[in-house]
Amino acid sequence: MPHKAPYSFLWLQAASCGGCSAAALGSDPSFLDGGTPRLNPLAHQAVSEECGAEFTQILNAVLDGGLVLDGLLVEGAVLNGPNGTGQFQMAPGMGRPMNRLIADLAEKARHVVAVGSCAAFGGVVAGLGSRTQAVGLQYDGGEAGGLLGAGWRSKSGLPVVNVAGCAPHPGWIVETLLLLADGALAPNDLDSFQRPSFFADHLAHHGCNRNEYYEYKASAHDPSQQGCLMENLGCRATQAPGDCNRRRWNGAGSCTNAGYACIACTVPGFASSADPFLETPKLAGIPVGLPVDMPKAWFVALAALSKSATPSRVRRNATESRIAVPPDSRSRKPK
Amino acid sequence: MTRLIVGPFNRVEGDLEIRLEIKDGRVQEAFVTAPLFRDFEHLMEGRFPLDALVIAPRICGICSVAQSAASALALADSARLVMPPNGRAAFNLLQALENAADHLVHFSLFFMPDFARRFYEGRPWHEKAVARFKAQQGEMARRAAAARTRLFAAIGLLAGKWPHTLALQPGGTTKPIDQSERIRLMEIVGEFRRFLESEIFAANLERVAALATQSELAELKRGDFGLFLSIADDLDLWRLGRSPAPLMSCGAFPGLEGEAHLFASGLWRNGAREALDLARISEDVSRAWLQGGQPLHPSRGTSQPEADKPDGYSWSKAPRLDGRPVEVGALARQVLAGQPLVRAMFAEFGSTVATRVAARLIELARLTVQMEIWVGALDPRQPFCVPFAAIDGGQGVGLAEAARGSLGHWLSIERGKISRYQVIAPTTWNFSPRDGQSLPGPVEAALVGTKVEAGEASPLAVQHVVRSFDPCMACTVH
Question: What H or E segment, with its residue span, contains residue B372?
Fold first, then answer.
């Protein structure tokens, strides 16, 4: 492979919890510490040696064109409040609102990446009851616009790349960067919300280890039970983009594997509904949020059918916290 | 008198700016500004009680497990629900895993890299510090991050996703651990122990945990801990950045059957432990960009922004106990827990850069030893969780010791919805602004007298003092 200059990036924390950085610190390959030579961190608030004036010098060098910037990464929502002043987040040591600083830096970067659902869509900070005029870089919830505007394009011609998730999987972050560094991420490699399709074209449901319970609609009633979490406990994995159950988190886990609902944290506005997160909204006993692409009548018919066909083993285990009835392995050989 | 505005502070979590008034080469006065307001407490109002488990952890992506735990415990308290022993063990483990990882990251990635800076070129320990800890280059930058990633496989087994898990519930944890997972947990914690024993301490963890005297410590001057001790002696970090505030801990890691905390709660004042009375806590907003008059107990507190308040200089409130600032964190925890060396160091030097950092490392050893015990206590045949039913009205308090100190959530429920949610985070205590009595917060006080060399735009000694508290600004203003 031909040698390419390392891809330089700058990571800024807007109105964030720091969770995307905390996730990124565990990526494989590691990149915040210069672990992969392909990616060159110019500055990151949590790991850079530079502090105070030395750090703002780096930002200023990018702004005045003296320092070439490949990727601007932003973590956290952009706060435009109160009353459009941006005063809810002033850039420390710079005496100006963070929203203006981000907008100026975005013009200088070859690519702009929103790391996490806050930077992408506003996320929890822009959720139900928000008073901070929080938006994402190029979306306000599910509406195109946000800080930079719907038609905005970075120097490369790409719109903002939305590595959604709260927090996103570390692999989504580092792989997006490596693809950008490789020049391999084109506009049609992004989905309709500008999320890289390599993770967004899957559903969090894919690879869920509760699959048999899902198939038979054998549902858990309380946390720590083994059954499917969709019918009662609020799981939105059949509607949520993400390959969470295919690649797994922290080496071993995922939300559904650990026994709690997928809250669809990669979806714009996931925290904007007044519905409870951990209960399934239902109408006439049927979950309102059906799997994507599934006609309601078919879902209802299939669910009724599969419920009536549920093996007693699956029905029993669904409400137990461990296998109460193992599969009968003695009765016949696999054919 | 000259004025210096220092910020952004890198290698701290979140946004921080400090104004220094300097006279004769020393800090005369310091003013700590938390420049970000996200309004989290308000975001929880009007929501269903269990929704707090989704919103609260997102206050902080560094200590999201601690936020989760405090939230789940506040809900459990409101319903007077008691979790089974496995649930307690899993809660303890998850919090200990996160705290241990935070301590390691703080030491290796945030605090030590400052001693690898060119400023210290020529010091006898400088070359070693560069090789081990230079930011983004030193061998420990990568090794510590890798050890943390490996350790977090234990969080993967116990809680799935991190940050922002929903595994911690009022009635216990959602993930029952089976035989094979329990044995894998044992291996993961064991591997972390070996990492600490070979890299950081070059000694057996039990020996570190049991250190009692300065002379025993002197014998253990090896590994990265030893490097730190040499630096602390050479630069006299034992006397730098002394905070005069009493120490507070809300108690960490309850016994699995509900017995006393492993690390006792209390207030350490005038060389003795006093019981902690939560009713004596109040939050003062005199210098915060928030509306309000008299200091209020968090069960009655509000958080209404007022961006142009004339006397304001931070979005952070000023929490006080009996109207006075207190310091929280690993030093406070280990003094109150009676760790003999930490008590002795505190008696001799008080809370300073070196004692705060040393206490954190000793706690790291203690936590890791203890994690093995909790993994051993997990019983795959017994329940991990009991069902929770939210109450229609009432109040609850949830307390946790995050890596950086005491975390409290105060919640009220009315007509089935959250009507009030107030959080006091560790760094809110330590990095509080002045209050109505003009009493500075612990860090503001600790910075007074710190040396500033001519021409320094971001004085390094000031940075040592600030980082020795391991601030988490994301938590501070929520």
Answer: helix B353-377
